[in-house]
Amino acid sequence: xxxxxxTTAKNIKPLEGAIIRRGTLGTTVAAxxxxxxxxxxxxxxxxxxxxxxxxxxxxxxxxxxxxxxLVVFGPVKxxxxxTPGAIVYASDTAxxxxxxxxxxxxxxxxxxxxxxxxxxxxTVAFS
Length: 127
Hints:
Layout: E1 4-5, E2 13-14, E3 19-24, E4 34-37, E5 43-45, E6 56-58, E7 67-77, E8 79-80, E9 87-90, E10 97-98, E11 106-111, E12 116-123
Antiparallel strand pairs: 1-8, 2-7, 3-7, 4-5, 4-6, 6-7, 7-12, 9-10, 9-11, 11-12
């Protein structure tokens, strides 16, 4: 089974030790999506086809203007089919995780289990 974002909103849960911040969405976001803050200060789904400078996991979904909880560091249940210990990247598909780098490498964290992502964002490649 390949890594994917858990699309069942009620399954997306920060776990003990997660650091949660609040952010305002700039567009429609689904629970569990990888998001990044844009230059306008709003959070949109991250897309590694361009450089991703920061990242978090949206705990709940919403639309532009909604304020939602974001896991910026630590464990969050949000994946399916991940390989434990594998690096998890932001992919070229907005908001979605991958176990291989997108066009611009942005590490969102690593898989603690098939369903748990430990968020520890790093931009790896700018070019």
